[in-house]
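Appendix B, record 7
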Amino acid sequence: MDLRWKRILWLQVGGAAINLLAAWAIVVCIHNTGPHWQTAASGWPHPVSADWPPATHVNTGPGAFGFRNRSTVGIRRGTASGPEAAEIAVINQFAAGWPVPCWRWEVWLRWEESPRISPRKESSAGIPTPSIWQNGIDPPDEIFHFSRYGWKRLPLHPGPLGFAVNTVFHAAVLWCVVLLAIAARRAIRRRMLRHRFGLCPACRYPIGVSAICPECGQPVQPAASAVACKSPSAEP
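Structure tokens (predicted):
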């Protein structure tokens, strides 16, 4: 493979890695708080079992930096526990990433609430088996102890278009950083070589033992070799 294509490939791999790490950093730092806008639901975003309550409304989050969340909620009043009880089901859909929130994960919840039931009665009926592709990595509680209902996950499921945009963006940023690092290294090396051979670091004019470049007036530190040559024993 040509060297140029190898560089492009490694830049894309680095951009993809930064893309994922940026999404994880947003998940760690974000707080799913603030006002949520409620709209009527036209149905569940995924097929659900027949015993699920009908979808009633959708809560959309405020859309913080690099983060989106949408919760479809279904409520059924009156259950086997009594007419005052309510069965509630929620499908939470999240996305994180920058500049496009492309890494997705979901958290499905189902429970029953009643004045006579405390705490609420959790249920897993009709909830698909969790997978890290669809639901993300569930980290230890010691890391995300502030996450209510355990919605914070490390996502591994990218949206294709957003993933491509983010990867190209981060690869371009990475390439700029590499170019700056190479330019800085060359500038430092060039300055050291000019100093070693008794040249002005700015204009390359020979300065000998002078502390100021006679060509451009730049203050310089003469090379140690030049200073050693001008010793009292060498004078007539």
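Remarks on this record: The beta strands are 37-40, 55-60, 67-79, 82-96, 103-114, 117-122, 157-158. Confidence is low (pLDDT under 50) at residues 225-236.
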